[in-house]
Amino acid sequence: MNEKAAPLTTHLEDLRKVLIRSFIAIIVGTAISYGLMLDWIMEIVVGPVHRLGHELVFLAVTEGFFTQLKVAFFAGVIFASPIIIWQILRFVLPAMYSHEKRLFFPLLFFGVILFSAGIVFGYIFVLELGLRILLINFSGGLTPMISVSKYVSFVISFLLPFGLVFEIPLITFFLTRMGIVTPKYLRKNRRYVIFLMFVLAAVLSPGPDIVAQLFLALPMVILYELSIIISSVLYRRIQKQKEKEEI
Question: How far apart are CA 28 and CA 95, in angstroms?
Answer without folding.
Answer: 30
